[in-house]
Design goal:
It is a single chain. The protein has helices at residues 2-24, 135-142, and strands spanning 43-49, 60-65, 70-76, 80-86, 89-96, 100-107, 112-120, 127-133, 146-147. It is an alpha+beta fold and 152 residues long. The chain has a single domain (2-147), classed as Domain of unknown function DUF5300 (Immunoglobulin-like, Sandwich). Strands 8-7-1-4-9 form a five-stranded mixed β-sheet, covered by helices on one side. A four-stranded antiparallel β-sheet has the order 3-2-5-6, with no helix packed on it.
Length: 152
């Protein structure tokens, strides 16, 4: 009887920790607002992650460049977005937890692109996913997100 009470208490405590972790890892910035048009000679890439319960407690840094010569862009959290201005040309965006994911875009000046992030099931930590989505889908989904800060 006492063992069952202890197990029930531990299970309740564990659920509370998980729920607090999920809430604490969601984006908390201002609601979506369209970014300014790309400056002359640049393109705009919205990096976003729709809010989902699955994998909601995990996030990952999004980088640009190669793994040898990169810079962090933002920390992609559940329900967040970040407008990233970049010069034209081929760019690679990537993220890593216990595995890595990347996408490559051929950015044109004055154009807008959408890169959707998500978290898949992993052994210890969720596995990052990045995919380029069409503008109609991206423009619709990003409106449900909150602004994320730039990486430090």
């Amino acid at each position: 009887m006492a063992t069952q009470k202890i197990r029930a208490s531990l299970a309740g405590f564990g659920m509370a920790v998980v729920l607090l972790g999920l809430v604490g890892c969601a984006a908390s910035g201002p609601k979506y607002e369209a970014a300014a048009a790309p400056p002359a000679g640049q393109g705009l890439v919205y990096i976003y992650r729709p809010g989902k319960f699955m994998g909601g407690g995990a996030g990952f840094d999004v980088h640009t460049g190669t793994k040898e010569a990169d810079r962090a862009v933002t920390y992609l959290q559940n329900g967040g977005y970040f407008p990233f201005y970049t010069p034209p040309g081929e760019i690679t965006l990537w993220g890593k937890t216990e595995s890595s994911a990347s996408v490559t875009l051929d950015v044109k000046a004055g154009e807008i692109y959408y890169v959707k992030g998500s978290i898949g099931i992993g052994l210890i930590v969720g596995r990052p996913r990045l995919e380029v989505v069409d503008n109609a889908t991206g423009a619709k989904e990003v409106k449900e997100c909150k602004l994320l800060p730039a990486a430090k």
